[in-house]
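Quick one - inputs below.
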Amino acid sequence: MITLASDFGSPYPAAMKGVILSATDARLVDVSHDLPRQDVRAAAFWTRETLPYFPPAVHLVVVDPGVGTDRAAVVGRVGDHAFVGPDNGVLRPVARRIAAETDADPEWFEYEYDDPASTTFHGRDVFAPAAAAVHDVGADAVESLSAVVPLPDEEVCDLRFPTATVDGDAARGEVLVVDDFGNAITNVPGEFLGGRTGETVSANGTDAPVETAYAAVEPGERLVTVGSHGYVECGVNRGRGDEAFGLAPGDDVRFRFQS
Amino acid sequence: MITLASDFGSPYPAAMKGVILSATDARLVDVSHDLPRQDVRAAAFWTRETLPYFPPAVHLVVVDPGVGTDRAAVVGRVGDHAFVGPDNGVLRPVARRIAAETDADPEWFEYEYDDPASTTFHGRDVFAPAAAAVHDVGADAVESLSAVVPLPDEEVCDLRFPTATVDGDAARGEVLVVDDFGNAITNVPGEFLGGRTGETVSANGTDAPVETAYAAVEPGERLVTVGSHGYVECGVNRGRGDEAFGLAPGDDVRFRFQS
Amino acid sequence: MITLASDFGSPYPAAMKGVILSATDARLVDVSHDLPRQDVRAAAFWTRETLPYFPPAVHLVVVDPGVGTDRAAVVGRVGDHAFVGPDNGVLRPVARRIAAETDADPEWFEYEYDDPASTTFHGRDVFAPAAAAVHDVGADAVESLSAVVPLPDEEVCDLRFPTATVDGDAARGEVLVVDDFGNAITNVPGEFLGGRTGETVSANGTDAPVETAYAAVEPGERLVTVGSHGYVECGVNRGRGDEAFGLAPGDDVRFRFQS
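Output:
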């Protein structure tokens, strides 16, 4: 199985699929091709939150604003999972997450390539062939590929999400992403809201009740909840939380319970 | 085969796919993840108009504004088809349609769950595992699942589309949905236009010819036609009928032939 | 394998998939259902640039503004590849491309149909069944289908992209399409920029450097590059080239190197 994630929209992913299917009969599963464009951190977030649910697979992740520069292509391995993508940190958070869940250590390899057919579409010309090649030998035999060179962990570009601070009735964090429903997903751990359903909390000065279901408030009304990723989210029942709270990815956010 | 329909956009459907593929090797087919957001009636319309074309499958439909409340999860069965989704009526019209076409009776079951990992993403934590479980035992053995309890038909939430009235040269109905092309699809049966191609009909006072092809009028010009669902639609050749006729889902619409 | 390309958005492609899967168990691969709406030339461009990467398959392409008129349905064959779609030229460029790459000649057939269930959705009622039928007999046995009649090449609707003119430091061409990143892709061959990386070129009077990577300029800055299709493209690093250069599909564009 090869999963595909990118910010390519349509129809560039089809060229990647064609290249892969010309090389292997792997099952293909689209994760998303609408990841926030050129946003490596958002791609790292969404792949960390979706790929661990998959059975062992080769995970191709191409959000690559550095395409055509000298950034390397990397292959990662965590247990039976393999990852293929640019060396810009995008693969790190998901690899760490799966490593933590499976008690395995991530291993990294540079995937060497030269003179691809294009300088602007390495998804098609570098990463898709790499994913097919990794799939064909299997995650446990990545080393057998001649294009692959082991990379020490410290030489692989890293990416870490900022850490929130929680202090009793108050928390400070950051909006990591806004999902397609408009929920502003922060890095504040859900435990901050633990057991306080029905209380009022403010987010950057905007008050809203803590709820466990969107429908606990009237349509159009704000709420603060623990999202499916385990983080505090700012939402609106049948509406967009980002707009109602005035929050965008990267914004600082301060929560405070009324007392 | 498991079909997937939701209003999740991207990339939440990937988490559902990962969960399913970790439990079963069923073939997955995306029906849509761009159903009108939180719109149970539109989801019921589009699934009724697409799922009956599929061979027997487990149809997962998650448009679920009540997620996290005490609304039940249900499993339906009509012949060899099974359905999994929230008990908000979304599965009823497609089940009735397939029942009518196959002369089978829909049967319903509650799918019991408790304490899913999240209160906001039952697609991942409740419905995806349910769909995989139903797929694994097969539609004819839904009863063998321990999480499943038979539900009398009258205890399952229902959803019916409004009925139009046709009286000779006039019809009154409602816009059910607007498709991605901008066609305003009403609940007025296509028979209302039967045999009157070329005549002029008004829709809420806006005149347009009855045609059987968009290209029968010039680009940018309005027409009224029988759509692929068998209903009267208001469209524009290479343009958006909803804008040209001033129609949105839920709007009342009155058609009248000029005489 | 059957690939699917259309301008249907969502969820109409699902009805096509259901029809196909009710007739055959072919592997389905979505190429795109977000091709520029009703834009036959853009569909011809994108299918030419993606389908040749696939292994032999039946390629279903439905961008069909003439649906419901008397335009024919056609089946094409080039070596082991087959094509199914409306006779509006959309299949011609990809067939020519694959023919050139494989040294095979395209062959064409009319696919006869009458009285489909709808006049507005031949994707579901004509082309999907045709693709399934072609898949089942195989590209080499298209003639065995009773619905199929050989068509002389000159009777098949043609579509050719305009040709650019290059004269030393200057080139005149046209914007063929704008991709989802906002790159304005012209018909000027990439050779026009050959070896002149770092020089300044103007596009309709707007200056930009020639670069081989978007990231060679600062975020928000313009560049001119050779895109992955081999044509000159006008882009912006992490932004939209179409807006920054004021270019839209169909626009004439003049490039001139400063001297």
